[in-house]
Amino acid sequence: MSDRLNIIKDINLNKVRSAIKKLGVATKPQLAEDTGLSVVTINSLVNTLIASGEILPHKTIPSDGGRPAASFRYNSEYRLALMIYMHELHGQDQAYYCVVNLKGEVLEREQQSLSQVTVSSFDLNIERMLQKFPQIKAICFGIPGVEVDHKLMIIDYAGLRDQSLSGHIMERFQLPVMIENDINAAILGYCHINEIPKEQCVIGIYYPDKYPPGAGIYMKGDIYKGRDGLAGEIKYLPLGIVWEEFDYNPQEVEALIIKTLRAFSCMYNPDRIILYGESLPPDLINKVRDSCLTPVEELMLAEIVLSADLNHDFEAGIKQLAVRMIDTVTD
Predict the structure, then answer these.
(1) Worst-scoring range by mean pLDDT, 98-107, 248-257, 314-323?
(2) In contact, 14 and 57? CB cutoff 8 Å
(3) Strand 92-100 relative to strand 106-113: parallel, antiparallel, unpaired?
(4) Which of 54, 198, 201, 321 is the S-S candidate for 49 at Cβ 3.0 to 4.6 Å?
């Protein structure tokens, strides 16, 4: 019986959390009306959330002739997340550290230049952030790679290959860790910022200056990852390229981009393709359209958007994932 009561209490606590997040500031009667719970139940639940620090007293609101009503607000800094994302900028590898609250607001930001990257390259910065913000309850990484069975099977950094970054961070700091691929996070961020409807399909393709390309697939309101999380690993497309020996000649890269864009248009018939890269030729879209030889090929071709700023969408996507993570993590 006690287990059942605890489950009911947790369900009701989540109702109150959702209501106060939505309302911003609310009185107990307002929370009762929004959740459908009795004022007596709301009173007990509010006391629980105040005791844990999850909601805070706000101010007393005058009423018409009755007793003034106390109002409450959600404590958006009750839990924080540390997001760390890695990105190539002007040929130099960078790591960005951001502390975010439950509203997705950035409270602290740092940048670190990277040379040789290992699983311990982030430890000192993480330590410092945790000392400054003990409310951090989760760490969310965005990296140019994919962990399969807790090992980085695909990664641009040789020092991380076949290593367990998530395992090292969890063991060292005793916090839950999530790792997301860079282009997956970027296209998630793009779709969030631009309020892309769930029924649309949007593809993100990233051609960095010195690493193989990658792609992210947004379908049904979220990222499609495939069975092992490897959907979008387009460096393995059978295009006859040995990436370890590729010299990133601009003409060859341009030809590969055109083939990749047309391939995704055929396979997914997407609404939009976002092509990221710092060195994209401005006339690329026209060249892609000129490469379509039949009316059907031209019809299948998606709207193409060129973007030199992966970092903006990447941060937005990692932020979304980090907020989701701390919104569900238990203390």
Answers:
(1) 248-257
(2) no
(3) antiparallel
(4) 54
Which residue did the predictor score with more confidence, 148 or 293?
A: 148
Q: Are residues 112 and 169 in the same domain?
A: yes
Domain annotation covers residue 204: yes
CATH code of the domain containing 105: 3.30.420.40
Q: Which of 29, 51, 74 is the last residue of a domain?
A: 74
Q: What is the pTM of this model?
A: 0.84
Instruction: Kindly state the tokens that stand for 166.
Output: 């998530």
Burial (CB count <10 Å: 0-12, 13-18, 19+), residue 232? buried
Contacts of 47 (CB under 8 A, 6+ apart): none
pLDDT tens figures, 204-253: 999 988 888 999 999 999 999 998 889 999 989 888 888 888 888 888 88
Report how far apart, in Å, the C-alpha atoms of 317 and of each of 170, 188, 243, 266, 321 are. Answer: 22, 5, 27, 26, 6
